[in-house]
UniProtKB/TrEMBL annotation:
A Pfam short name: DUF1450
Protein name: DUF1450 domain-containing protein
Species name: Aquibacillus halophilus
Domain of life: Bacteria
InterPro entries in the record: DUF1450
Amino acid sequence: MGIVVVEICDGNLIHTIDLEGIIESKYPEVAVITNDCLSFCGLCALKPYALVNGKRIFAKNIEQCLDKIEKAIEEELAVYQ
């Protein structure tokens, strides 16, 4: 388990990319967890999103969301540096 946890819903648009592979290879301190549901009903259908250490990160498209997720991860990791 990493010091930063990224949670994604398996019904969300962000699940269409290999987020676990992308994030965990770039940031070994991060664990990506896929859940059946994160209880943000409606958001799954509207925008790609993830939770980074419990903070909701979302964007208009997958690429922007991935960029925001990486930025949030770097901010979380900076606390431990």
